[in-house]
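User: What would this chain look like folded?
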Amino acid sequence: MNKEQFRQQGIEIRKDFPLFNSADVVYLDNAATSQKPECVIQAERDFYEKSNANPLRGLYALAEKATKEYEDARKTVADFIGAADSSEIIFTRNATEGLNLAAYCLSQIMLKEDDEIVVSIMEHHSNLLPWQQAARRTGAVLKFIECSKDGVITDEAFENAINMQWSDAANTIKSVKDKEKDKKTKGYLYQIQAEYTNKIDPALSQEVLKAGKKLNAAILSPIAGIQYQRTINTIPQAQAISTNLDAEKLGLNELLVYIDGVLSNLCIGSEYEKFEEALKQIGIMIGFVCSRPDKETGGYGPDNLWAIDSSKYLVIECKTESTAQMIKKDYCNQLSGSVNWFKENYVYPNECIPIIIHPSKFVDTIASPDENMRVMTEQELACFRKNIRDFYSTLCQNGNIGDVNKINELLRIYKLRKDDITNMYTVKFERKN
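Assistant: Here's the prediction, encoded as structure tokens.
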């Protein structure tokens, strides 16, 4: 089939799908949701209009009719894929559920300790996590096959995994990991590297896994957990901004576009993960050293921790998705817990100011907030966003964005110095009478 014939065939196939006939779209997301051809839509419509009942269990006439149509569909699928019998066809809600079911059933009847499960590093989580769980249940060994930069699985990578050449396999994964730019993907590759490394050096594998956990909190935790590394600020604010800008090497327009992108997620109502990461990035962009202890340690510490100088910190809890009219008792307790965590990990003379980001500055009558708790609502956030945008806009107009003296002057003008953060952009909590 030549290129033109292939194109014509595509045009003919599109005619079977009502959505493509009503909208000029190119649709590539079939792995998540596939479009339905007219015959499928009509079959479902006919069923709901004429045969809708509970199949397989009811004893009344309509249920028996629904059962027959359900089983007839099973036969149709069996014939289409060449199955030996319709009983081999199992309907699931989606591919993810099907993969989970297959992995669970096969592990129950086939896998035993030291058996090998081989998957490629390209697998979607829906075809990876079920096999990881199966390996844990049965004692089987999960092996990963490396792919080339073009997404091709090579014979060499396959042989390395199968023939227990763990060092070669770990090095192959490491070379891919070192080139990866996406933090979550890189953290996942650290986990795979750690699994290979564990075969030859268990202690080193824990260090590898620890490094990956900092990039992707969803991967496995090291056996000994994560030893918390404190967030420390030793660089003057303006100098830190200059150094960060030099490292990023963005053009002036690119920088402003990046700033706007981060600020767009810094709003009450934003999804918490996006907001917390945006808040961390904003803190870094205005010259502080920032981290996300809760994410980085797997559940310990505040959502954001800002080191605004060598001994002063902001402990921040983000409740941007809350719809409550008041700050709940649980939220206050969580912030108090984060303050206690800070005191355990940062000794005197380090001190912190507890801040909660919430739609309201009023606390619930039964809540017991830390007496020093400050609140940042959308009103304060809006002012904060504006001043950050204006600061960077003016800095870019100045031309020399690395000029420390100019940065210091603009930090003063736009009230973004360390003490301005709490004085200008937070308020004291209140109780309603």
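The chain has a mean pLDDT of 87. If you want, I can go into more detail on any region.
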